[in-house]
Write a structure and sequence with these properties.
Length: about 280
């Protein structure tokens, strides 16, 4: 069955979450990022800027399974193709947050179609804590109707000019168990990352690392290379282009650095782009 534009502009999910210090610290450990500020409960606990993907996962799954015109097989063909999160402030451990998901666009691609979902997290006073533009690509699925989008006033990405060569780079080994560790620490369970039989049933040779795990590791390394603290980060955006195999080594490259914006990408062990067009924006003071 094709994807249809009928959901564009409609809220498709709403949940409440209470991220506690245990979950916030576990996520950082699963990236892995061992900077002390991510684990210091005697002070203001810094949240890893990619943590929002963890509580968002329930909304993503609920929407895909309950609100889709596609078949289950077509839903399972969906891959996370782009991500853009704007972090307004750090999470206070234990605070109650309300997350809503709204479909804001569908588009046609040469080999399938895409759907854009905006997720907004509000605190008890109705203030925005973060908001995410989550883009899914469905290979082999047709769009029944015209590309449709609603204007939600999403800010344009900051611009920068990458140099011909990376400013700095660092390799990072992805252990064979890292997908299991990230799954449990983030509380994001998708069996293609941890179950060999399931991975092979969808055409993979073996489980792969989560795209958000690759992106989070890229953010951690890029900010370290640039001398930024994670509390400085107010925005992360990137596209996902290739899978990262377990028990391989990735390379994170810092491609641009200004006082307010970093550019980065992530390459697989064989030189393919895993994360492309990475942007890290500084949170306004």
């Amino acid at each position: 069955m094709p994807l249809t534009p009928e959901l564009v502009g409609r809220e498709v999910g709403r949940i409440e979450v209470l991220p506690d210090a245990r979950w916030l610290m576990a996520y950082a450990a699963g990236v892995p990022d061992d900077r002390p500020e991510l684990f210091d409960t005697t002070s203001t606990l810094v949240t890893h800027p990619m943590f929002p993907v963890a509580p968002e996962w329930e909304l993503i799954i609920t929407h895909r399974t309950a609100s889709s015109s596609m078949t289950r097989a077509e839903v399972l063909s969906g891959v996370h193709s782009a991500h853009d999160v704007i972090v307004e402030r750090s999470i206070v451990p234990g605070e109650r947050l309300e997350l809503t998901a709204t479909v804001v666009g569908v588009d046609r691609r040469r080999s399938g179609c895409t759907q854009d979902l905006v997720i907004v997290a509000l605190d008890g006073d109705g203030n925005t804590v973060w908001r995410t533009m989550f883009t899914s690509f469905f290979r082999g699925v047709a769009l029944d109707g015209e590309p449709t989008a609603v204007d939600v006033g999403w800010p344009a990405l900051p611009t920068f000019t990458p140099g011909e060569e990376p400013i700095a780079q660092r390799t990072s080994h992805v252990r064979a168990v890292d997908a299991h560790v990230y799954t449990e620490c983030a509380r994001i369970w998708n069996p293609i990352h941890t179950d060999l039989a399931v991975a092979r049933s969808v055409g993979l040779a073996a489980p792969i690392l989560h795209g958000t795990a690759t992106l989070a590791r890229g953010v951690s390394i890029a900010t370290e290379l640039a001398g930024w603290g994670l509390a400085d980060v107010g925005r992360v955006a990137a596209g996902f282009t290739s899978m990262v195999d377990l028990d391989t080594t990735i390379a994170v490259r810092l491609t641009a650095a200004t006082p307010d914006v970093l550019g980065f990408d992530v390459l697989t062990h064989d030189g393919r782009s895993a994360v492309t067009g990475g942007v890290i924006g500084r949170r306004p003071s």
